[in-house]
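[Q] Does anyone have a clean structure-token version of this?
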Amino acid sequence: MNNKNKPVIGWREWVSLPGLGIERIKVKVDSGARTSALHAFRVEPFQREGQDWVSFDIHPHQYDLDTVVTCEALISDIRTVTDSGGHQSQRYVILTDVLIGDQQYPIELTLTNRDTMRFRMLLGRTAMNGRFLIDPEGAFLISPSIHQLE
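[A] Here you go.
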């Protein structure tokens, strides 16, 4: 595998989820997680034109419970996911585009309540596979730092 032309990302980065109306969200790059996970609450499945959809709210910014973005997405799957603590739960899976640096492409996201977690989103290895190299000591290598954005 040729790694010469792959951009390097740090252990945390800013990304966008344009299909969900999320302009920026800080992610923890987690090569130990297979699938990416997005913070979601008030998760409600519904039917639209004979298809299974899900409506959910998120707090896109760390430590900010006042800002809420309401999203809707087509349900791609429902899976049993084992978290880092070994707990299993059923999660809705959606497919949506992610924008990292100058790359935009579809990824799978599981929806789970991450209110007690520091990051609102985990970027799992299948979302990065073949696209990036990870520098575990670096942060915001492909996106501006927090201080530049806030």
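[Q] Thanks! Anything notable?
[A] The mean pLDDT is 89.
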